[in-house]
């Protein structure tokens, strides 16, 4: 059994977050400390701690995360200019919250990572 994080409470709406989209598989909410003008987190409703824990049975959730990212980007008005999707994994990847989340960042030109 995986240990729940604050994101499970946000998904169940037990603690506040600015949720901008939710369906049966995923939830999208604004990052509490935005690094860019648009910074949204897209998470599966079920707890999967890291990308290393992904199973074939999670295909629907993972696919929906991308579909919702594109939908949110369009709604935020950043689809045409472009944006970046990031999933951090474990310590070296910079992961702080152990419930998979996709960062959707944009609203400005992003510098190269490499
Ligand atoms: P990561 O480093 O990839 O695990 O990213 C965790 C992200 O979660 C950071 O960008 C935090 O600012 C964000 N975060 C942490 N707590 C909350 C919260 N209560 N509501 C919204 N975003 C949060």
Automatic annotation (TrEMBL):
Matches recorded under SUPFAM superfamilies: HIT-like
- Family annotation (InterPro entries): Histidine_triad_CS (IPR019808), Histidine_triad_HIT (IPR001310), HIT-like (IPR011146), HIT-like_sf (IPR036265)
Q: Give a GO molecular function annotation for the protein.
A: catalytic activity
Entry-linked PROSITE patterns: HIT_1, HIT_2
Name of the protein this chain belongs to = Purine nucleoside phosphoramidase
Which species is this record about?
Candidatus Pantoea carbekii
């Amino acid at each position: 059994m995986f240990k729940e994080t604050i994101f499970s409470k946000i998904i169940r709406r037990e603690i506040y977050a600015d949720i901008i989209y939710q369906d049966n598989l995923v939830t999208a909410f604004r990052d509490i400390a935005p690094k860019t003008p648009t910074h949204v987190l897209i998470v599966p409703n079920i707890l999967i701690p890291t990308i290393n824990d992904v199973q074939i049975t999670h295909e629907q959730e993972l696919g929906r995360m991308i579909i919702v990212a594109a939908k949110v980007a369009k709604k935020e008005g950043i689809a045409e200019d472009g944006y970046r999707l990031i999933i951090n994994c474990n310590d070296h990847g910079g992961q702080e919250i152990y419930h998979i989340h996709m960062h959707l960042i944009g609203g400005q030109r992003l510098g190269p990572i490499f």
